[in-house]
Amino acid sequence: MKSTLHERPGCRTPEAPGVARRQRPLSREEYLSGILRGDRSVLARAVTLIESAREADRELAEQIVEDCLPHSGHSIRVGITGAPGAGKSTLIEALGRYLIAEQQQKVAVLAVDPSSQISGGSILGDKTRMTTLSASEMAFIRPSPSKGIAGGVAQRTREAMLLCEAAGYGAILVETVGVGQSETAVHEMVDFFLLITIGGAGDELQGIKRGVMELTDLVAVNKADGTNIAAAERARAEAQNALHYFPAAGSGWTPRAMTCSSLTGAGIRELWECVLEYTMLTKTNGWLARTRRAQQKRWMHEMIEQALRQRFDAHPAVRHSMEALEKDVAEGRTTSFRAARMLLEMYSQSIAE
User: Fold this and answer.
1) d(Cα 315, Cα 312) in Å, to the nearest integer?
2) CATH topology for 73-285?
3) 38 confidence band (pLDDT: 50, 70, 90)
4) pTM
5) Which residues are paired to 222 by β-bridges?
6) Reduced to 3 states, what is the DSSP secondary structure of residue 206?
7) 147 band by pLDDT with thresholds 50, 70 and 90
8) Which of 36, 104, 123, 153 counts the highest number of beta carbons within 10 A?
9) Is 127 exposed, middle or buried (0-12, 13-18, 19+ CB in 10 A)?
10) Are 223 and 230 in contact (CB under 8 A)?
11) What are the C-alpha distances in Å from 147 to residues 9, 62, 109, 120, 144?
12) Model confidence over 330-353: pLDDT tens digits?
């Protein structure tokens, strides 16, 4: 039945509650122009696109990344890790606010969150933890789902980083979940690696893996304020002492430790000056350029491995036999080596045909 309600010119009929409006699809050219002019909404849609598992989305996403590549590479990429409770997010917010207010620098935060094993979605949104920073027009904060990748590292963080650089973000901060293999993966996509710890919690270095300390360019002892200043200074001295035991870095940089406070802002300027000092050194001696070239090659090989694994898992013969062979291996009727060889032979034969 036709409604008796009339719509006045210039007024829109309200939409039904709970019904989200579909956004108009953007073309490849519209994505590129939006990103290059720093449009945060277009950038957010582009990052969503590169995180999509749909084949059509992936094709467009790869085109967008390729278009943005000539406009990327001009930022400082900083990886940030630390145990839960060390104050990573509050320190990132303090650093981001300093860069925007004092350095007039656009800041992108690619925060890697714990993700739901069922949905693959982000449980904890960092915009709720960085309220002041997220309100700034010069900041872009993106909590990304890990989608089951080891250590919680977001699958497309590297591509998102390139898009942010093309959008004019001069500082890219990549926060890890601080568990498993995420530190190593993030270290391999950034220029500078920052470890955040705190003092006054017993053995300050307890629980920090040797491997993480070896990756570190700077240890920042956070929460150096109030009655905790003395404990933070002791923790700084312990960390500095521990860093001396590791072999010299190929970059020519000597890792160091310092104290700071995201609450009072003490040490935040010095922290960033340390990052700039490292960047100047490694640009001058060629280490930064060599590292980024090596990262690009490593990323290519990782993408090949991922693509091959996806094709292998999707192969009909492999999918048909996988469950039965897994059961045979689990119950000891065959070896894992034999089962793997059988599956690989199935896949290889289909390619040859």
Assistant:
1) 5
2) Rossmann fold (3.40.50)
3) very high
4) 0.84
5) 198
6) coil
7) low
8) 153
9) middle
10) no
11) 47, 19, 19, 5, 9
12) 999 999 999 999 999 998 987 776
Tokens 């689990």 locate to: 330
- Residues 179-194: pLDDT tens digits? 556 788 888 899 999 9
Query: Is residue 141 within 8 Å of 205, Cβ to Cβ?
Result: no
Domain ranges in the chain are 73-285, 297-352
Q: Cβ distance 224 to 233 under 8 Å?
A: yes
Cα dihedral sign for 204, 209, 214, 215?
negative
DSSP label at residue 113: -
Closest CA to 50 of 158, 134, 180: 158
The bridge status of strand 218-222 relative to strand 171-175 is: unpaired
What's the CATH number for 297-352? 1.10.287
Q: How far apart are CA 234 and CA 241, in angstroms?
A: 11
b/e for 177-211, b at 16 or more Cβ within 10 A?
bbeeebbebbbbbbbbbbbbbbbbbeebeeebeee
> Distance (Å, rounded) from C-alpha 111 to C-alpha 168?
18
Asked if pLDDT for residue 204 goes beyond 80, the answer is no
CB half-sphere exposure, 241, CA atoms < 13 A: 8
